[in-house]
């Protein structure tokens, strides 16, 4: 090849690598948007415009060593042996299918079961398989593991880091039984030292190794702990988590662990507790993620303990900035892209849409003013009191509605019963999917746990029995 030919080939590689949106991402986003029910195709909707949705594993390690009331897993889940090779093989197959269907980049959860029951090397291999298929993985845990486990997970045999960054979502609430040191907590406050200890493990490892991390805090909410949500929010905010997610309980999974009616706890009740904790409104209308009956999310940041939203839905200028972001930057992968490469991608978008620059600058200036100005941000940054904080409420649905609604959807039928039709709408707009390469399906999480888990865990109980004979 001539020098000119090599130069042209190099330029083509550069142009391909720096294209703002991968063609497969554009395809997946368009397909997701087209499949959404009309009532969620709003200007604020991020699903199908900026995100294809979250992804999760299933059937990879259903066993857990805590008991929760309620638990979304079926009764057979804890009768399945932990097997690292099975986990890695299944993760590889599921992630390969997700990459094929949903494009080269997405956020995915390594979820069971309890992830820390996996040997550290198998846990690491599963995360590496997810990354190999363009997924940004998050390990879902109850947080009851030690610093030695975390160190073994993130470092290799040579003592060096095998991951530059890890993400964990830790579930803490008083409905969980069996945690070391808090076997049967009677209040959320009893768990605050355990929440703090979890974050401290990561802080210490970062100081020693430079490991970067993202930590989310999950909490199931029932009538038993609803009135403790506000106090929990106030306690958790300064701990070092970057997200607080709440799941109002539903009647799904092991019915032996349903201790009360959960109908009184919905997204509005939880959000009211959140606003009570912060002492002000938490606007969520600016960005939607799926069906509002399932998800309510508010993206923002903390400045010296006070939360500020990224979008003011009451400001027409912010809404216009959001609309232009979705239209021109929606398919750009802002997380998981190397910084210099991301800069080039953004510059290529701005080259085509130069009018976006003053719109973006205006949004930045308004956001800084709302947060108290540049000096307030600088003081908070110097004090280590500046950081991202996302609030989310994710509402699961009862199995008695999901089962028949899903069955009708598999037959291509629309329910005539209003409640079942609403369930079908929510399933169609689900933001959280699980891959079934064996059937060629992407299954909403509620359908997975309400319908498919029962047979799946029964089969796994035979494939991976707790006691191996012979």
Automatic annotation (TrEMBL):
Superkingdom: Bacteria
Cite the InterPro entries for this sequence: Aldolase_TIM, rSAM_sf
Q: What is this protein called?
A: Radical SAM domain-containing protein
Q: Which organism is it from?
A: Modestobacter marinus
